[in-house]
């Protein structure tokens, strides 16, 4: 029987579902009889409760359950016959004026759009490039030394310098009034590590143990503490202890402490280079991938199904609530989160998902087992026991699917760059790594 599909809007459709009342009642009776054999009621032996009593007690809920099941089956059969790809959940309401012996419903829903891929050969793209230079290796070596540094008290009378660990008391006031988070006792931080605002560190530089100082500090307009952002506070700080840092010498013992059995500086530098090159590769892939996917989506023509966007907003809000929970925010599940905050992000995700899926289907860009294994082994090579990491991923379907998704996106990005007009753009290592 042909299904009549009515177009309401670009992607919105409506179909009418008709179910025979007799068939529904037959299924209701069958379920009540099965329930009769299981139900227990006072005054009756198990399995001996009269069907009329079972129907009186459970008839409404069983009828509701059957209607839901039958409407769902009828809807799925109708959209399958009409070869429709449904986006989101349908809105199903009972229809009045149905013929005798029939109960009718109207299902309103959206379908996934037809996607028209753009001409990628007309797309211009910059492709970022970067390399690991000697300065990057030196900087990483200094970071490794700092991670293993020790501290000892600075001689009496000497002033605080960059690299020193200081212990201070401080109190901040805005317009003469203390503010939350503006006071601390025996607070410890290392000068030059960026733990405190630069103006705060600059004020402590040059101070001696026992010395106090009052200074103004202007909080940036985008400071994470909204209650003080853009305001100026007066801080009173007292230095209680100054400790100078001692960086370990780069010798055989230091090298071996990092797991480099050869114990030579050359072996350590080569290990650093390999790790940095792997990190550079992954970061370049990630940034170039975003540019390629955005270009792909911009060149495509399609309508966005509202239901899919709304579902994506729901997922983003749920993710935001989970993040708040992990941060210890009280009643995070009840926190008001405006849906419009995620509208643009949700639309981008849905658009990308539809366009990428169409490109993968059109050009067979699926991730092969060999590609997945190669990416996984490259990722695992940065760990101390790579084979254990590989086994862990392969024994965890959810994690393995994440690797597959990354490889799939890489295939898509490579295809786009292979078709587009590409201009290489070299950037510095520090810029790529977000080091300023």
TrEMBL record:
It is found in: Cytoplasm. This is Trigger factor. Involved in protein export. Acts as a chaperone by maintaining the newly synthesized protein in an open conformation. Functions as a peptidyl-prolyl cis-trans isomerase. Its EC number is 5.2.1.8. It is an enzyme of class 5 (isomerase). It comes from the Bacteria. GO terms for cellular component: cytoplasm. Keywords: Cell cycle, Cell division, Chaperone, Cytoplasm, Isomerase, Rotamase. PANTHER family: TRIGGER FACTOR CHAPERONE AND PEPTIDYL-PROLYL CIS/TRANS ISOMERASE, TRIGGER FACTOR-LIKE PROTEIN TIG, CHLOROPLASTIC.
């Amino acid at each position: 029987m042909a299904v009549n599909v009515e177009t309401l809007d670009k992607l919105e459709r409506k179909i009418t579902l008709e179910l025979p009342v007799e068939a529904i009642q037959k299924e209701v009776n069958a379920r009540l009889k099965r329930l009769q054999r299981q139900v227990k009621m006072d005054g009756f032996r198990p399995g001996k409760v009269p069907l009329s009593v079972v129907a009186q007690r459970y008839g409404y809920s069983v009828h509701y359950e059957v209607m839901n099941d039958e409407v769902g089956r009828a809807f799925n059969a109708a959209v399958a016959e009409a070869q429709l790809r449904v986006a989101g959940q349908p809105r199903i309401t009972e229809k009045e004026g149905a013929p005798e012996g029939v109960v009718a419903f109207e299902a309103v829903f959206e379908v996934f759009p037809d996607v028209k891929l753009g001409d990628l050969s007309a797309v211009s793209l910059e492709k970022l490039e970067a390399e690991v230079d000697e300065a990057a290796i030196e900087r990483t070596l200094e970071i490794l030394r700092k991670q293993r540094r020790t501290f000892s008290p600075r001689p009496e009378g000497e002033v605080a310098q960059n690299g020193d660990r200081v212990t201070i008391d401080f109190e901040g006031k805005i317009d003469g009034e203390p503010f939350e988070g503006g006071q601390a006792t025996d607070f410890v931080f290392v000068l030059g590590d960026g733990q405190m605002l630069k103006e705060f560190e600059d004020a402590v530089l040059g101070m001696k143990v026992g010395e106090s100082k009052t200074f103004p500090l202007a909080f940036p307009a985008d400071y994470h503490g909204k209650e003080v952002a853009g305001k100026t506070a007066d801080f009173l700080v007292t230095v209680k202890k100054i400790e100078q840092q001692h960086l370990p010498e780069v010798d055989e013992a230091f090298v071996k402490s990092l797991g480099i059995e050869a114990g030579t500086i050359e072996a350590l530098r080569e290990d650093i280079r390999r790790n940095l090159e792997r990190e550079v590769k992954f970061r370049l892939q990630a940034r170039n991938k975003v540019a390629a996917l955005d270009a792909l989506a911009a060149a495509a023509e399609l309508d966005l199904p509202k239901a899919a966007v709304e579902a994506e907003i729901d997922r983003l809000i749920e993710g935001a609530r989970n993040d708040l929970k992990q941060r210890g925010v009280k009643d995070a599940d009840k926190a008001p989160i405006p849906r419009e905050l995620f509208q643009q992000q949700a639309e981008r995700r849905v658009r990308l998902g539809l366009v990428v899926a169409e490109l993968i289907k059109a050009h067979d860009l699926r991730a092969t087992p060999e590609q997945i294994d190669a990416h996984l082994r490259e990722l695992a090579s940065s760990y101390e026991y790579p084979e254990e990491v590989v086994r862990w991923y392969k024994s965890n379907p959810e994690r393995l699917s994440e690797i597959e998704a990354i490889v799939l996106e890489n295939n898509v990005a490579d295809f786009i760059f292979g078709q587009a007009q590409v201009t290489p753009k070299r950037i510095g290592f520090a810029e790529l790594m977000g080091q300023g």
